[in-house]
Amino acid sequence: MKYLYGPVLSRRLGLSLGVNLVPRKVCTYNCIYCQLGRTTLRTLQRQQYLPIEEILREAEEVLQLHPQGLDFVSISGSGEPTLNSRIGELIRGLKDISPYPVAVITNGSLLFMDEVKEALLPADVVLPSLDAVNPAVFETINRPHPDLDIARITEGIRDFRRSFRGKLWLEVLFCRGINDNRDDILALKRAIDEIEPDLVHLNTVLRPGAEDYAYPVSEEKLRAIARQLGPKAVTLATKHEKRVISPLGPLKERVLKSLEVRPQTLEDLSHGLGIGEGELVQILEELSTEGKVTSRLFNQRIYYEALTNS
Ligand code: SF4
Q1: Is the peptide bond before 231 cis (omega within 30 degrees of 0)?
Q2: Candidate from 80, 260, 308 with most ligand 1 atoms within 8 A of CB, to mutate
């Protein structure tokens, strides 16, 4: 598979087939916690970064292998998918061929643009992120393209909500000491109340990211923030509930593709790909010998990640 990956298990979407719309790593932000590492092209330039016809052809083939058992087809991947100027065509194309609902995971930074709002309307679920509304905190955590303005982004998400008929699930990711103080949370609450999302997923740093100083907040803190933000705020559970066996591709390639999307522990990989841990250890050793995968200790757990040039 060139443009699709998975199926992967995630805490928000269950088991989903991932669709990548931009090369690694093209984004409007350079978040300190990004699991893909630092942004190599931070841009606001919308263009066809990856070819939509080929992506749809690949999706059609892969979906035939999964006539049932998935929860979503999710558009996300190696950067910000709304930077692909043909994302609207892709969503409509996927809706025609997919028995599963289509979700778009976005940082929401371009939703102030009418053409981006319009493009995302046919999706079933849109999951924008909003980590901070205070400009200084936004700069610190998301390190946005210099022409982006958080007030305009927040308004864009709010306006999109007004016209979008699907579900809007906002995500806020908290980094300890960066966007978790009382004033930040109060300001976020005001913005969230205006946006009126269906749900607010509260998350923290669970995997190694772009910067070592992006530390997680505790689960207790996350629960306290949820109480402050109100009934729509839910903390994301940490346990995976499903396990499936996927017929996709040779095992080694599937493991590598999955690690290219995000760093994972042995347990994550085993649950997500339906491969036994013993077999996975052998595959990871081979990939590591070939210089394609490395490991690092984070929060007392060992994470495997794909090396960018593999
Ligand atoms: S976390 Fe998302 S929005 Fe932030 S830099 Fe990574 S891909 Fe971009």
Answers
A1: no
A2: 80
The model's pTM is 0.81
**Tens digit of pLDDT for each residue in 31-83?**
999 999 999 999 999 999 999 999 999 999 999 988 888 899 999 978 999 99
Residue ID of nearest Cα to ligand 1 atom 6: 34
User: Which pair of structure tokens corresponds to residue 41?
Assistant: 């092209």
- 56 CA to middle of ligand 1, Å? 24
Mutating to test ligand 1, I would choose from 20, 29, 305 the residue with most ligand atoms within 8 A of its C-beta, which is 29
Find the residues whose C-beta lies inside 6 A of ligand 1: 27, 29-31, 34, 36, 39, 79-80, 107
- Domains contained in the chain, CATH given: 4-243 (3.20.20.70), 249-310 (1.10.10.10)
* Greatest CA separation for the chain: 52
Please name which of 21, 131, 165 lies closest in space to residue 79, comparing C-alpha atoms: 21
Which atom of ligand 1 is the closest one to the Cα of 33? Answer: 1
State yes or no: pLDDT of 215 exceeds 60.
Answer: yes
Quick one: tokens of 308?
């960018």
Higher pLDDT, 181 or 1: 181
Could you tell me the distance, in angstroms and rounded to a whole number, from the CA of residue 174 to the centre of ligand 1? Answer: 14
Q: Which residue in 121, 40, 123 sits closest to 75, CA to CA?
A: 123
- Which of 57-61, 117-121, 152-156, 273-277 shows the lowest mean pLDDT across its residues? 273-277
